[in-house]
Design brief:
The complex is a heterodimer of chains A (168) and B (642).
Chain A: H1 3-26, H2 31-47, H3 49-52, H4 58-76, H5 96-108, H6 113-124, H7 129-136, H8 140-155, H9 159-167
Helix pairs in contact in A: 1-2, 2-4, 4-7, 5-9, 6-7, 6-8, 7-8
Chain B: H1 2-10, H2 18-39, H3 42-55, H4 84-98, E1 148-150, E2 154-159, E3 162-167, E4 174-180, E5 184-192, E6 195-202, H5 203-206, E7 214-221, E8 229-236, E9 239-246, E10 249-256, H6 272-284, H7 288-291, E11 294-296, E12 309-310, E13 317-318, E14 327-335, E15 338-349, E16 351-356, E17 360-365, H8 376-385, E18 389-398, E19 401-411, E20 420-423, E21 426-431, E22 441-449, E23 452-462, E24 467-474, E25 477-483, E26 489-493, E27 501-506, E28 511-519, E29 522-528, E30 535-542, E31 550-559, E32 561-562, E33 571-574, E34 579-586, E35 589-598, E36 601-611, E37 619-622, E38 628-631, E39 636-639
Parallel strand pairs in B: 13-15
Antiparallel strand pairs in B: 1-2, 2-3, 3-4, 5-6, 6-7, 7-8, 8-11, 9-10, 10-14, 11-12, 14-15, 16-17, 17-18, 18-19, 20-21, 21-22, 22-23, 24-25, 25-26, 26-27, 28-29, 29-30, 30-31, 32-34, 33-34, 34-35, 35-36, 37-38, 38-39
Helix pairs in contact in B: 2-3
Classes of the chains: A mainly alpha (168), B mainly beta (642).
Chain lengths: 168, 642
């Protein structure tokens, strides 16, 4: 990668960093885990930059990598005792960002994985329908139908009330 | 929604670590370039170095195509058929090699129409922590079918010909609804949101003795738990080999044997030679409809006949030249909410042993075992014609799609699906002896290089003259138990996949044939304390020093038979209570053993839960609130740990 490419890549990192971290949290990661995942996703982008750079659909490419990284983390998490920590074990940690991410997880855990991915990518990251469809490998029509079902489900979720209280 | 939107904005993400990412990226790229240079020399090395970044994907991830839409199912050395005529010619060529005066063999063996145990076929080798739906599975994150599933609020189970839904949020589980499952036998479940997928034998097809057992897949919506409703039915002519779920993607591996044809057999009026001529002519007159697997996603009420809609198009079927056999093994992907949108590709041969990680699927030749409702043919083709070599095929998974990306082979035989594992793009296999090896077991590591699965490391002579009883894989460690008279437990360091290293060996009387990691470098082993395998014991092993694994505690559960080694779903590890629940059968009595790992060793408690054959239905699963469900043949109840 030459200097121009590297500068271009650095700009790309600055533009996408926050949304990648947020998306990782919304997809179920802890805040610190989310930063690791965003970082390893971007490292992979660097090694594949020749392809990412020319991709018609850069966002789809990058968010697909993010989803893969998340899956890998979940998969390798369990040996050496980390795994044996059950999901609610970090509740004691009182720091703000844990509170926010826990509330987000509670609100979104009611969604199926498929619905959750669509909501996060389409509604929060604000990828286009085409980008979301390419990221998830599903038809644009499916993006639309899953999004509307997921939003409906969230609208009726009692966890959102708790979230509002915690944010106060 | 505004609350979530606020949360989105509130999540602090700090300054992007641009410098760190650039540094790490540069290091990775240098490593990527170096690797092929060590293998190839001269001009070829330049080409390989350039190609590596494109062809070889990074460990652990599917490499999405830039557009994210283009799908090429066969990206490596396997060529799919150009058209149906070519594919038929290949089927017939193989068929003519195999057909005899007695048809596909002598004598013809009837079909076993019982359902395979979809996940556990004779597995003496091990599994790991419970999945999100409460099943003790092989690979974290990959769910496997079971007769019972939970989403934390409901329990769904197959009982006889019905699917039952229980509400488990109250003090006692309550049956809320039930639906009859028509024309399906031995159903097992997967769960995705409000959808329950029931996979079983197609009884509509079982009645036709001449045709192979088919497979029926129902999608049941439990959106209204009081009125579960069948919303989709799919029927396949193929028998089911394996079913797995990753996220919302559900994947079936199906196999079709060669077709039932109008063969004759020699008798008083027909000589051997005449029969053979007739049978060869029958094979030559087959059409592609006779060979291709078919499916039907209609009502499922009509018997499914060949000549309907092929499950795979001819140009999505590859015939590997070096793998013998006449099974058509299909990989089918779909999601629960769009069960009718299926993606399918197929291989002809005998590679039906399936292992799946989050983003890869491997098929391997199987000597005879994972072949249910199937025939002599698999046995014969592999063991007699493969010369003791196992062929391996790697597929990359992407949503519902699978693409073949590399092939390889290894001398020796794989015992079952637990013999394979993938971590960071390295396939590790535990190989037993065959005619091509010595009389010992080996551990072999392989990595994809271009289109080849290349052997990068191996250890031989693990347990000379002994059988592998159990294997447990970790990211950088394998624990292998072999058995003849004592129970050597071997620890193998896999932190350098190209240089696996035997670190330790522990010999104790008897053997453990189910190992379960319980954290802090501890393993629980369920097995027998005596060589004649009558006294069930549970041992605790400390593997913190790989060179010096110690048995730190052991409890005796008396005479009986532990179910976990044959069916890991009969075992549950409860991390919070640090307790293992495992089903023990003693004559006609079925007991649940609760083994607690404490500071001072192991504590045991035995509870009578069931009688007789219903032992195989007994399951335990933890709910998110920590309560433990006990599912027996008749009941769903809560189980008090103390």
């Amino acid at each position: 990668m030459d200097a121009t490419d590297e500068a271009q890549f650095a700009e790309f990192v600055r533009t996408h960093w926050s949304d990648l971290v947020r998306a990782a949290v919304f997809l179920g990661a802890d805040p610190s885990e989310a930063e690791e995942i965003a970082q390893s996703t971007l490292v992979r982008c660097y090694t594949k930059w020749h392809r990412v750079r020319i991709a018609d659909n850069r966002e789809a490419y990058v968010y697909r990598m993010l989803l893969n990284q998340l899956r890998d983390v979940r998969r390798s998490r369990w040996w050496r005792s980390r795994t044996d920590v059950e999901p609610d074990a970090h509740v004691d940690d009182a720091s703000d960002r844990i509170v926010v991410s826990d509330a987000v997880h509670q609100a979104l855990d009611s969604l199926s994985r498929a619905h959750r991915e669509v909501v996060v990518l389409r509604y929060f990251v604000q990828l286009s329908e085409a980008q979301t469809s390419a990221t998830l490998g599903i038809a644009p029509g499916t993006v639309k139908s899953r999004l509307s079902r997921a939003l409906q489900q969230l609208a009726g979720s009692e966890h959102l009330v708790e979230l509002a209280e915690e944010n106060r | 929604m505004t609350d979530l939107e606020d949360a989105w904005d509130d999540i602090p993400s700090g300054e992007p670590p641009v410098g760190a990412i650039l540094a790490e990226g540069r290091t990775r790229r240098r490593q990527q370039r170096r690797r092929p240079l060590m293998v190839v020399g001269g001009v070829a090395a330049m080409a390989a170095a350039f190609a590596t970044g494109i062809v070889v994907s990074q460990p652990g991830g599917t490499d999405p195509t830039a557009a994210g839409i283009e799908r090429v199912a066969f990206q490596a050395d396997l060529d799919p058929a150009d058209n149906c005529a070519d594919l038929l010619a290949e089927y017939q060529r193989r068929g003519l090699d195999l057909v005899t005066a007695w048809g596909w063999g002598s004598p013809v063996v009837g079909y076993d129409t019982t359902m395979p145990e979809l996940t556990t076929a004779q597995s003496r080798i091990t599994a790991q922590g419970s999945s999100g739906t409460g099943t003790n599975v092989q690979e974290a994150g990959i769910d496997e079918p079971d007769t019972v599933k939970t989403d934390g609020k409901h329990v769904v189970r197959v009982r006889g010909s019905h699917l039952q839904v229980f509400d488990v949020t109250a003090a006692e589980p309550e049956l809320t609804g039930s639906v009859r499952l028509p024309q399906i036998s031995g159903g097992e479940l997967l769960m995705s949101g409000d959808s329950v997928i029931v996979i079983g034998g197609d009884t509509n097809r079982d009645t036709d003795y001449a045709a192979p057992a088919g497979t029926r897949v129902l999608t049941v919506s439990i959106k209204d738990p009081s009125r579960p409703e069948i919303v989709d039915t799919a029927v396949y002519t193929s028998r089911i080999i394996a079913a797995r779920q990753h996220g919302s993607a559900i994947r079936l591996v199906l196999a079709d044997g060669p077709p039932a044809l109008d063969f004759v057999t020699p008798d008083d009026d027909v000589t051997d030679e005449e029969a053979l001529q007739h049978n060869r002519a029958v094979v030559e007159s087959t059409t592609i409809d006779d060979w291709l697997p078919y499916d039907d996603s209609g009502s499922g009420n009509r018997p499914l006949l060949k000549g309907g809609r092929p499950l795979v198009a001819c140009d999505q079927v590859a015939v590997p030249a070096d793998s013998p056999g006449l099974d058509t093994v299909s990989i089918v992907g779909f999601t629960a909410d769009e069960a009718t949108q299926r993606s399918a590709i197929a291989l002809v041969g005998s590679a039906s042993l399936t292992y799946m990680s989050a983003d890869r699927l491997y098929l391997a030749d199987h000597p005879s075992g994972e072949c249910f409702g199937c025939r002599w043919l698999d046995d014969r083709t592999v063991t007699q014609r493969s010369h003791g070599t196992t062929h391996l095929y790697e597929f990359e998974l992407d949503g519902i799609y699978a693409a073949h990306v590399a092939s390889g082979n290894v001398k020796g035989m794989l015992a079952d699906r637990w013999s394979m594992d993938e971590a960071d793009g390295v396939l590790r296999v535990a190989v037993g002896p065959s005619s091509a090896t010595g009389n010992f077991n080996s551990l072999v590591t392989l990595r994809r290089h271009g289109q080849k699965l290349q052997e990068i490391g191996r250890i031989d002579k693990i347990g000379v003259n002994e059988d592998i009883k159990a294997v447990r894989w970790f990211d950088d460690l394998a624990v292998i138990v072999t058995f003849r008279r004592t129970d050597p437990l071997y620890t193998i360091d896999l932190s350098r996949p190209d240089r696996p290293a035997l670190r330790g060996e522990l010999k104790i009387p008897g053997f453990s044939d189910y190992l379960h990691p319980v954290g802090d470098d501890l393993l629980l082993g369920v097995g027998y304390g005596d060589a004649s395998a009558t006294r069930v014991t549970v041992g605790l092993y400390d593997a913190s020093d790989l060179a010096d694994v110690k048995q730190t505690a052991v409890v005796e559960l008396g005479h009986g038979h532990a179910l976990a080694p044959d069916d890991p779903r009969a075992f549950t590890w409860l991390p919070k209570a640090r307790t293992a629940l495992t089903v023990i059968q003693k004559d006609d009595d079925v007991l649940l053993a609760a083994i607690t790992v404490g500071e001072s060793g192991l504590k045991q408690r035995l509870t009578h839960v069931e009688y007789g054959d219903d032992a195989h239905q007994v399951r335990t699963m933890a709910l998110p609130d920590g309560r433990v469900l006990l599912i027996t043949g008749e009941n769903v109840t809560f189980f008090a740990l103390s």
